[in-house]
Amino acid sequence: MIKCIYLAWQDQATRGWHVIGQLLRIDEGYEFRYTHGIKNVPNFSLLPSMPDHEKVYRSTALFSLFKNRLMPKSRADYPNYIRWMGLSNDNSADELITLAISGGEKETDFFRIIPVPEKNANNEYFFNFFVNGIRYMPDSAQELVNNLHQGDILYLVHEPHNPKDKYAILLRTDDPRSLIGYVPAYLTKIIHKINEEKGNHSVNIEVAQVNKDAPLQMRLLCKFSSTYLNKPWDEYEDEFKTLVS
Fold first, then answer.
1. What CATH fold (topology level) applies to the domain 118-228?
2. Where in the chain are all domains bearing CATH 3.30.70.2330?
3. pLDDT in tens, 176-223
């Protein structure tokens, strides 16, 4: 069960993503605190409901900032929404897991949820994410996505000359070789750091699920995994560190 997720915010002036908050699951409910990321974005304003960057906020229920990023279970398309994330369709999907996989995207703001890898019995760290940007790929690439299978390996392709993000990472298939989409922008910087530390094959991406009946933003669910993480996830990026102890 996921115990921690991070909140990222996109600076519209630079288009860069910054980790600005941490949400923890605790015995009494949930705990939110700001991270060092807020120091790097002068354009960011503290959340109205959490106006003190030195305070630890606690709640027995999920904070509304996060709760509002979950699809209501009463919606007719909720079963599909859960199925597309590869979760059990029994109306009991865990809130933090749902947020971590979906990203909690809303059209009305510039926040995203960043997952924290879990560790399995094989000392492998992993999490699932949806591939971005499929809609911008050629029709042939979109058709290729529909024909992928669980377990298919995808390869990382750095796109250093991307005008919007120098850390941009494309995903490609092997046979045939075709670019099919992007790793979410708020994950690329940390993946670069892992590869720089341990080599270009330290991160593995494989197909977890293809949702042919889903909108393109939820069409391809992939699994990130690595057995090379020799320090906590939050130590790969200073923005993850909390401002309060």
1. Alpha-Beta Plaits (3.30.70)
2. 118-228
3. 999 999 999 888 988 998 888 877 778 999 999 999 999 999 999 999
Mapping DSSP to helix (H, G, I), strand (E, B) and coil, where does residue 191 land? helix
State the Cα–Cα distance between residues 197 and 244, nearest whole angstrom. Answer: 28
Q: What is the C-alpha separation between 36 and 186, in angstroms, rounded?
A: 16
* Structure token pair of residue 239: 């923005």
Helix (H) or strand (E) holding 30: strand 29-34
Alpha helix ranges (H) inside the chain: 64-67, 78-84, 95-102, 139-146, 185-198
C-alpha–C-alpha distance, residues 143 and 215, integer Å? 14
Checking 134-140 for CB contacts under 8 A at 24+ apart, the result is: 134/180, 134/181, 134/216, 134/217, 134/219, 134/220, 135/216, 135/217, 137/179, 137/180, 137/181, 140/178
Read off the pLDDT of residues 30-48 as tens digits, 9 standing for 90 and up: 999 999 999 988 889 999 9
The structure tokens listed for 26 are 């605790």
Please name the amino acid found at residue 220.
L
Say how far apart CA 198 and CA 192 lie, in whole Å. Answer: 10
